[in-house]
Amino acid sequence: MEKMCSTLGVSKSGYYKWVQEQNNENSYQKRRKALLARIKWLFVDTHQRYGSPKITHLLRREGWKVSERLVGKIMGEHGLRSCVSKKFRVATTDSNHSDPIAPNVLNQNFKTTAPNKVWVTDITYIPCREGRLYLASVLDLFTRKIIGWKLADRMTTDVVLSALDDAYASEKPAKGLIHHSDRGSQYASGEYRARLKTYKMKASMSRKGNCYDNACIESFHSVLKKEFIYCTTFRTKAQAQQGVFEYIELFYNRKRIHGSLGYLSPVRFEEAYYKTIA
Fold first, then answer.
1. Which residue intervals define the domain Integrase catalytic in the entry (predicted)?
2. Residue 128 in contact with residue 229, Cβ under 8 Å?
């Protein structure tokens, strides 16, 4: 070693410092390569729907010590951009009717203490080359889980009733649940009001033209569209049905993490809640 250092004209301490720097650089490169591989895997595993904030959280859960800024930089360098598309809105609320309007019982109080205390529901438009489709969804305000949904080619009372019936069959809520919707003719219809009465639910409706009164279900439909619907071309209604099923039942309810739920999916958040009261 001394002879080599003498031949090269460097000190022993200088040589060892160089070796240490090389080892550190190799270690950094290995870690960066492993980090990139993990980021790519998580990005693909979430169907390219997660940006750097959620990817960072998943990495930290696995034990990585990383900043959101670094994850964002790496994703940007390798073209890993979440497939979020622009908004496109089709009116789905017909409030020009003579049916009774329920009072706004919910009144933007979106905090609740347990599942099946408050449900929120709405209809949204799903584009399809074979013809228009409409999705009626029922969301539990506590777990943010979609507990009932129906996809159909007409925006009728039967569509929202089917989603409600599925939700009730799945959850069997106790008497007094608050059911909140907009003022659409489907929700104000005599048939729908009768079903709420049968299920012993308390009807609540948004104020006219105030989308914030039903913000949670509006938010779900916005996420659904930006992460999936507008990034996908549905050629047939059957394809749309299968795609929506997979997004809601396999991804959104069971896998997609939510900041408001402590970065758990709705199903995992619900499971955690029931464990605490067992």
1. 111-274
2. no
